[in-house]
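Researcher:
Attend to token order:
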Amino acid sequence: MKQKTLGINYSSILTDEEKTRFKSYIEIKDGYEKFMIVAGILFLIVIIMVIKTNSIETSTKVSILLVILAVGLYLLKFTVTGNIIYTLDVILQCFGIILIIVSYYYIYKHDNLLIYIPICALGIYYSVKYVGIFSNNITGQIILIAAPIALYILGAAMRKVKEIELLIPVKEKHERKKDENK
């Protein structure tokens, strides 16, 4: 029985020249085909597990998924050849900077430090090694490393201030606010 294809010949969507160009854009290194299949399946399983779990907050899930995608792209970068490596470099640099910013925020908030400190460390390592702004700039590297420590201390001080604020009786708070509004 013949299937209807609505008049579209799918074998002629890409010309031979486009197929050749695509193959030159991305080629799998010899001996890595099975590794890529197994790694792809494992990454897919991990992504599904992270999405389906209910014990992790949504913001943490997003950060973990970004890390998983970044690690997957990093592995892909070393198992392929061609011009895709330049595209992967740009994407990985963006992921590294996004992960650093997100982890800085959660380090400041003191939320899920066991997850965000390693994420921050990996982002800093990748940025120092591969991002052009930081790779040759010692001042930028020092700022990247010192920022989470400073944010952690600042976050601890802000938490302490809020705790002290909670200890002041409600009546005194209202009186103080009246004085501030005058």
User: Anything to note?
Assistant: The two ends are 87 Å apart (CA to CA).
